[in-house]
Design brief:
CATH topology of the largest domain: Butyryl-CoA Dehydrogenase, subunit A, domain 3
Helix content: 40-55%
Number of helices: 12
Number of strands: 11
Bound molecules: flavin-adenine dinucleotide
Strand order of the largest sheet: 2-3-9-8
Largest sheet: 4 strands, antiparallel
Shape: globular
Length: 390
């Protein structure tokens, strides 16, 4: 992948925004267990950062996916995982299907304000009883005249306390589990309050990603016009699988800078900290471990860039995107864990940047498809597992 002058300029603008408007507040937002998404998104919208690959007629920049990837990479310079994840939900997880399959009315009502930073979106796939097995979701949209009445629960929803709308996967019919689902745009609020039938039942406390508000949301006969469905009825599972490809590429790209920073912070510390008449960095074991980790991160970069190149060229990247997501999950455990060890007791303190990465990075092996889900996809594509790839 070749970063042009335009890619670099976007990265510079975002880096300045991170340095001035995000990193100075990260500790405060982590402590509050929420960050002001509307305020941050509005400023990003004003800079044109929330719709790089979205159509120009809805306020986007109409660029190709490599720009989204360049942005995801720079987001890795934020000193926590929660804020970049929330931004990634807005740009690459809850809006791709809307941009691809939404009607003009839906794109004006939901996409344009998301790109401008006037609305916060969320993606509602997971439920208490179905996460990895997306086909097993139970939420139902029952037809009532021209409307759907939606009943069910969505769990682990990022931006859930602040979202103005949800791109929600629901069962809209009977029949085979891969053909009975639709993606429906659900407005969450009316006059600033949650709409009738919607309840944010619980803000979930977590070991990491503290600045991100994660919630359990109940839906009880929530009325939504049927024309708020994206694309054809019954195609939601397929659309969501397509949407996952961008989520997984985003996930891999967003970890490249944070993993690299984690290694560099550790080198800086190891060169200062003295023991046994030398520094920690003077130990060959430490040098070799850090060199090994840097090599692994560069391998992930090469894999992610290659997947992105093919994706931009219109090819199917299910295999490479799944590999990149898997490798990102693995490295988000290995790199912070190894680095934390070299910080000794300092690495075990809450305020330490590496310990935050150790906690936040753990999600990469679980969210957006666990490592085992990626391995399942790869096994099928390799012809080892007998079930065909859905
Ligand atoms: C902080 C956070 C934010 C999230 N944000 C969102 C969001 O915005 N929207 C949304 O829809 N979801 C979101 N999720 C949900 C996330 O995508 C799910 O947690 C994830 O898909 C795993 O589902 P689960 O938690 O139900 O685990 P389960 O499906 O119960 O799986 C548990 C474990 O089983 C193992 N496993 C799974 N499948 C297989 C297999 N085939 N073979 C072997 N082992 C397997 C894995 O180790 C997996 O971790 C979020 C989760 C977290 C924690």
């Amino acid at each position: 992948m070749h970063f042009t002058h335009e890619h670099r300029e976007i990265q510079k603008t975002l880096q300045r925004f991170i340095d001035e408007e995000i990193n100075p507040h990260v500790d405060e937002w982590e402590a509050a267990e929420i960050f002001p998404a509307h305020e941050v998104f509005k400023k990003m919208g004003n800079l044109g950062l929330l719709g790089l690959c979205k159509p120009e007629e809805y306020g986007g920049a109409g660029l190709d996916y490599s720009y989204s990837l360049a942005m995801a990479e720079t987001l890795g310079h934020i000193h926590c995982g929660g804020v970049p994840m929330a931004i990634g939900v807005q740009t690459d997880m809850c809006t791709p299907a809307l941009a691809r399959y939404g009607s003009d009315e839906l794109k004006r009502q939901f996409l344009a304000p998301a790109i401008a930073g006037d609305m916060v979106g969320c993606i509602g796939v997971s439920e208490p009883a179905a996460g990895s097995d997306v086909s097993g979701i139970k939420s139902v949209a029952r037809k009532d005249g021209d409307d759907y009445l939606i009943t069910g629960q969505k769990m682990w929803i990022t931006n859930s306390l602040q979202a103005d709308w949800m791109c929600m996967l629901v069962n809209t019919g009977e029949g085979p589990v891969h053909k009975n689902k639709s993606l429906v745009m659900v407005p969450m609020r009316e006059n600033g309050k949650l709409r009738p039938g919607i309840e944010v039942a619980q803000k979930i406390r977590k070991i990491g990603m503290h600045s991100s508000d994660t919630g359990l949301i109940y839906f009880d006969e929530v009325r939504v016009p049927q024309r708020y469905r994206l694309g054809a009825e019954g195609q939601g599972f397929i659309y969501q699988m397509q949407q996952f490809q961008e989520e997984r590429l985003w996930c891999a790209a967003s970890t490249l800078a944070s993993l690299t920073n984690c290694i560099q912070w550790t080198i800086d510390y190891a060169q200062e900290r003295k023991l046994f008449g030398a520094t920690i960095a003077d130990q060959q074991w430490v040098q070799f471990k850090l060199a090994e980790l840097k090599t692994e991160v560069e391998a992930l970069r090469a894999l992610t860039y290659r997947a992105c190149d093919l994706y931009v060229n219109g090819q199917d990247v299910l295999e490479l995107a799944s590999m990149a997501k898997l490798k990102a999950g693995r490295l988000n455990r290995e790199v912070p864990d190894t680095c934390l060890q070299f910080w000794g007791g300092m690495g075990f303190t809450l305020e330490n940047k590496v310990s935050r990465m150790y906690r936040d990075g753990r999600l990469a092996s679980i969210g957006g498809g666990a490592d085992e889900v990626m391995l399942g996809i790869l096994s099928k594509l390799m012809g080892i597992a007998k079930t065909p790839v859905r």
